[in-house]
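Long-time lurker, first post. I've been practising inverse folding by hand and with some scripts of my own, and I keep getting stuck on stretches where the structure tokens seem ambiguous. Below is the full token string for one chain I'm working on. Before anyone asks, I'm not after the true native sequence, just a reasonable design that respects the backbone. If someone could post their per-position residues I'd love to compare against what I wrote down in my notebook.
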């Protein structure tokens, strides 16, 4: 139903956007009127005032329940009078209102109720409203009700107990300048750039992050790795001179000689996140050959953005955006040319999840992580795709990442609450898979476990 809701929403918005502009609608007034009419109709329904419920409906209303058409208002009235009251208090209740014209609009209401310890009821109610003679009435109503299992999430204490002495490697952070308007950290240090770094270091302390891979402007990548040795830093590839996040970015591609010196002496240990899609540049463009060769030579891990998103973006910063350049299949000729690249796919299982699987099957050195998709896409969509990763024998190449500032704990919880994972598989995702991917030595692994024990 969520998919149906999305399709209905997008299609209607697309079809009527020009109408809205042409009629110069006062959207706020229309939404308020529809919301008030919806409230009155629902209050009457809750109280069993069925005559008022019917008054809110047009005589020729079309009414569907779970896809089956109700033939008349008489049956609607019988249903209204017979349903047991009082109703249970919903655990979820949302109402989305979409004006269409001065005399029409529609609403989508989402409700959830507990049924028993293991099951809940989800209800989606779509109504089309029309204004006739100054009154808003329902011309179409479709209600869908279904039972779904309740997914019990672990308590914070359970997760904390599991994480005792458990080191975590975060393979996806973003290094940027500090932002003076960020209230999370802008009071921590007079130097706003150091304030952000210190705030990130605190997040690492609280979440057992013993190593983190992150890219950004050369200036700040150097600073972060110098100040906190848990960072394996590097430059974005390419950086975007138009994007505030990439400031300062004088050139899209770093000087190859200077970059090699930084890889050689350990100043940098990472390359990415790639920005081919946002810059509108094909990954196999010959300009990148020296960087692929350099990364292969020094076994530098590369984070490849393998998704079409983010879908909310500033097009002034990315005028050449081409989502097709996030397709991991474009890596195949590169991997043929540089077979020993240490590369991993970011944002599995997003738009290119099938392509990610294909590349990983062909190249056993390629790993992946599940940031962003697992936070913003419905779990019903992304979780089966993660399960497929394990079903196809690729689960030992899944690594932990956080991506968004301040979401480390949330992403830890997402992994832990995949209840079909074994304890070993969870620990592999948090640390062991990345340790293998990065080729960490026994002494480095021992150091990381000691760091986790000292927390």
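-- Answer (accepted) --
I ran through it position by position. Result:
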């Amino acid at each position: 139903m969520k998919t149906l809701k999305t399709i209905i929403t997008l299609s209607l918005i697309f079809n009527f956007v020009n109408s809205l502009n042409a009629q110069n609608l006062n959207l706020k007034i229309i939404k308020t009127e529809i919301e008030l009419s919806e409230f009155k109709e629902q209050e009457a329904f809750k109280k069993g005032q069925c005559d008022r419920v019917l008054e809110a409906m047009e005589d020729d209303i079309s009414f569907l329940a779970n896809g089956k058409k109700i033939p008349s208002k008489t049956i609607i009235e019988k249903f209204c009078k017979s349903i047991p009251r009082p109703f249970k208090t919903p655990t979820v209740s949302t109402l989305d209102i979409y004006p269409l014209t001065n005399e029409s609009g529609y609403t989508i209401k989402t409700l959830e109720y507990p049924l028993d310890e293991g099951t809940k009821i989800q209800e989606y109610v779509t109504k089309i409203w029309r204004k006739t003679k100054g009154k808003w009435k329902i011309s179409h109503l479709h209600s869908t009700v279904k039972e779904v299992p309740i997914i019990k999430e672990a308590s914070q204490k359970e997760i904390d107990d599991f994480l005792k002495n458990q080191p975590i490697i975060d393979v996806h952070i973003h290094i940027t300048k500090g932002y003076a308007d960020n209230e999370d950290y802008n009071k921590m240090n007079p130097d706003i750039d150091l304030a952000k770094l210190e705030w990130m270091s605190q997040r690492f302390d609280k979440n057992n992050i013993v190593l983190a891979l992150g890219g950004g402007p050369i200036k700040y990548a150097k600073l972060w790795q110098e100040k906190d040795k848990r960072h394996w830093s590097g430059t974005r590839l390419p950086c975007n001179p138009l994007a505030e996040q990439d400031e300062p970015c004088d050139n899209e591609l770093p000087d190859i000689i200077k970059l090699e010196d930084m890889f050689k002496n350990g100043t940098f240990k990472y390359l990415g996140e790639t920005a081919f899609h946002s810059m509108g540049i094909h990954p196999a463009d010959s300009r990148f050959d020296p960087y692929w060769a350099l990364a292969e030579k020094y076994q530098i891990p590369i984070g490849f953005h393998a998704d079409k998103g983010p879908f909310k973006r500033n097009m002034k910063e990315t005028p050449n955006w081409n989502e097709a350049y996030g397709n991991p299949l474009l890596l195949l000729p590169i991997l043929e040319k540089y077979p020993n690249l240490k590369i991993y796919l970011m944002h599995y299982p997003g738009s290119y999840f099938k392509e990610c699987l294909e590349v990983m099957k062909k190249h056993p050195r390629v790993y992946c992580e599940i940031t962003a998709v697992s936070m913003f896409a419905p779990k019903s969509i992304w979780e089966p795709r993660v399960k497929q990763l394990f079903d196809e024998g690729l689960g030992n190449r899944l690594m932990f990442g956080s991506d968004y500032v301040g979401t480390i704990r949330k992403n830890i919880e997402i992994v832990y609450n995949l209840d079909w994972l074994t304890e070993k598989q969870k620990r592999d995702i948090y640390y062991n898979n990345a340790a293998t991917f990065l080729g960490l030595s026994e002494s480095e692994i021992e150091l990381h476990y000691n760091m986790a024990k000292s927390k």
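A couple of notes from the structure itself: The chain has a mean pLDDT of 91. The CA atoms of residues 234 and 350 lie 25 Å apart. Happy to go over any region you disagree with.
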